[in-house]
Amino acid sequence: MKPTVKKALKFLFKKKYRQNFFAVRGFYNKMSDEKYLKMRFKTVMGKELDLENPKTFNEKLQWLKLYDRKPIYTTMVDKYAVKQYVAERIGDEYIIPTLGVWSSFDEIDFDSLPERFVLKCTHDSGGLVIVRDKAMLNREKARAKIERSLKRDYYLQSREWPYKNVPRKILAEVYMENENGVPLRDYKFYCFNGEPKFLYISEGLENHATASISFVTLDWQFAPYERSDFKPFETLPPKPEKLEDMIFLAKKLSDGCDFLRVDFYQINGNIYFSELTFFPCGGMLPFREKNHDCEIGEMLNLSK
User: Is 250 exposed, middle or buried (0-12, 13-18, 19+ CB in 10 A)?
Assistant: First the structure.
């Protein structure tokens, strides 16, 4: 048997990957959200999904997928529409400038774009092309990635309802970087019932193999939680100058939400909004220690 065939068979015999294989081909599209989530949760998390009495953080996020469906959530996850939403609440000085919005890759006017920019799809996670030198851009490779993302119904992947009706567009943004050469870091605040409780910092997410993610307390110490799918920082990066300001802004943006992750950058001493996320990792966040899922779950009060 050829090695490529053996590899494919091994892939399909693993239940999680077999489920992914059928999911991307639409086999589960007509399955109800509740039934699909129970099946998916059992496969990924290795336990039954308890929707009657959810206790863990991941279980409660699945519950929110099904029972917390405010129309405004569609705007909040739309990478283009959310800019105006956020600007109206905290100010447009926190918004990364937009260079253009298009419905298809062929519509992009590359001549009008600067030498460095970022392309992303408005409706999903992962449809991202970072261009540091336009002259070196492989347009066909970029086209393949963007068009693949435009075809993907991100809602069906893990039934994150807010993405269901987001218009599928291509967004170009200004390329952002620190002038002092410090790597760009995300500051992702976990907000429970309108209160930031902790955050995680991430660096180098372009390359999963070399990226780092660590959970951090609001007073800038390593938090006890860890993800099993990323290596943590070996040493805690310096506390950002605008940490208190970011905490204040995260509180404003998460007001009224049972749970919301609010993401910022600090670039050249200024705060910039990144995105809003209702269900980190689709509500199947892989904690290194299972008890951390329960501890964080206690912070999320669904009694309202």
Answer: buried
- Alpha carbon of residue 44 to chain centroid: 18
Segment 76-125, tens digit of pLDDT = 999 999 999 999 999 999 999 999 999 999 999 999 999 999 999 999 98
Q: Measure the CA–CA gap between 11 and 20, rounded to whole angstroms.
A: 10
CA 107 from centroid of its chain's CA atoms: 26
Cα gap 163→75, rounded to integer Å: 9
Task: Give the Cα separation of 90 and 99 in Å (integer).
Answer: 21
Please work out, in degrees rounded to the nearest 5, the angle formed at the alpha carbon of residue 79 by the alpha carbons of 77 and 80. 125
Contact 272, 176 (CB under 8 A): yes
Q: How many CA atoms lie within 13 A of 142 on its CB side?
A: 21
Q: Give the Cα separation of 102 and 6 in Å (integer).
A: 42
Yes or no: say if 173 and 98 are a contact pair by the CB < 8 Å rule.
yes
Helix (H, G, I), strand (E, B) or coil at 205: coil
CA 97 to chain centre: 20
DSSP 232: P
Rounded Cα distance between 285 and 44, Å, is 10
Strand arrangement of the beta sheet that strand 170-174 belongs to: 98-102, 170-174, 117-121, 128-131
Largest Cα separation within the chain, whole Å, is 61
